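Q: Please design a sequence for this.
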């Protein structure tokens, strides 16, 4: 075959540039057409083709993030509109804070959670990526399990709303009344213990035993693939979050050392069984891999993890249900308050493949010992 030269050579050079920028030089340096083989052209086409999905994924991620920002702004605007300058919730620890500060705190918290995500990324950037979607079943079964578990979780949550008043207590949620923000009427020791027992049984033990029949602990994100790396993340997050919590809510400094030493283990165990294990098993061990399998998007899975975490706190100790306005305001403020923390828990679990990391670094101690030990001391009459 004739060598490629002159106008023909320039034409091939232009075609090569369209196919892939780096192909221009290789085509122009060839003097024999047969050396510019179909295999090389196909290779360049395949390279460009394989890069296209990555660009599409980046675009979809940006769209998810943009939608999340718009949703967050809309949620806060709705709360502002309904509140009309006053949040009527039973939150004694926040009673002295101006309305603007109370409204700003969830967004400031979200900024801190995004910064913590950056810290986690920095600590895990050199680790082997975890293919969490591979831990979930095929799409059809993943849909069935996800919808079934969410339906069960909502039914169990309704069960807690009914059981508490039936026993003379308040409706049970993922938090005992007074958690983080205080309450005008403290829970009794019996209420606290029954709350922890019910949540552990309904949201941790039953789902775990059901799914453990078919899946391994590794499939459920309960086995570490990098213990040293996971402990490094736990320690770093715990130190930073503890400092933030102590700066924002320093009530623990008003306790005597003796009272804190007595209350801290009770707070740890009570919240560990009442909310830490239920949160970890239900959302981040079981649902999160299925969210990733069904969406194929890390960003969307993080947001879904946050929304699910908020969904499991629909009735808090501070909630008001005396009027349609109060109901709407209470439900909206739950999502303002808990979506951010739930998103961080999802992100750190996706980065490490280990649901225990968020449980130990960002839940069991900070905040539920550091912030809630003073309340637990009052509940159990520890002086």
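A: Design:
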């Amino acid at each position: 075959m004739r060598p490629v030269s002159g106008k023909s050579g320039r034409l091939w050079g232009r075609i090569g540039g369209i196919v892939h920028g780096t192909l221009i030089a290789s085509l122009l340096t060839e003097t024999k057409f047969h050396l510019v083989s179909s295999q090389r052209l196909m290779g360049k086409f395949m390279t460009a083709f394989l890069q296209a999905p990555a660009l599409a994924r980046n675009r979809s991620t940006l769209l998810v993030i943009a939608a999340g920002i718009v949703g967050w702004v809309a949620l806060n605007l709705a709360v502002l509109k309904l509140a009309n300058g006053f949040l009527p919730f039973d939150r004694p620890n926040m009673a002295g804070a101006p309305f603007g500060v109370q409204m700003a705190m969830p967004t400031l918290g979200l900024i801190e959670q995004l910064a913590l995500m950056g810290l986690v990324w920095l600590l895990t950037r050199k680790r082997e990526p975890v293919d969490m979607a591979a831990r979930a079943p095929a799409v059809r079964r993943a849909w069935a399990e996800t919808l079934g578990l969410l339906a069960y979780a909502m039914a169990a949550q309704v069960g807690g709303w009914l059981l508490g008043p039936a026993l003379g207590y308040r409706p049970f949620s993922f938090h005992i009344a007074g958690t983080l923000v205080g309450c005008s009427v403290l829970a009794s020791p019996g209420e606290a213990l029954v709350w922890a027992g019910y949540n552990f049984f309904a949201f941790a033990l039953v789902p775990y035993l059901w799914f453990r029949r078919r899946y391994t602990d590794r499939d459920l994100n309960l086995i570490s693939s990098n213990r040293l790396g996971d402990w490094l993340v736990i320690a770093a997050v715990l130190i930073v979050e503890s400092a933030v919590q102590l700066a924002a809510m320093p009530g623990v400094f008003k306790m005597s050392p003796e009272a804190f030493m007595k209350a801290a283990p009770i707070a740890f165990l009570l919240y560990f069984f009442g909310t830490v294990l239920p949160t970890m098993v239900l959302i981040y061990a079981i649902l999160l891999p299925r969210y990733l399998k069904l969406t194929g998007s890390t960003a969307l899975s993080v947001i879904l993890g946050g929304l699910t975490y908020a969904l499991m706190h629909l009735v808090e100790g501070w909630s008001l249900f005396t009027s349609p306005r109060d109901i709407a305001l209470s439900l909206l403020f739950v999502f303002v308050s808990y979506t951010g923390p739930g998103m961080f828990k999802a992100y750190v679990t996706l980065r490490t493949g280990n649901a225990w990391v968020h449980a130990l670094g960002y839940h069991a101690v900070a905040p539920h010992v550091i912030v809630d030990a003073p309340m637990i001391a009052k509940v159990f009459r520890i002086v």
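Q: Thanks. Anything notable?
A: Residues 6-36 form one domain. The chain is about 70% helix and 0% strand.
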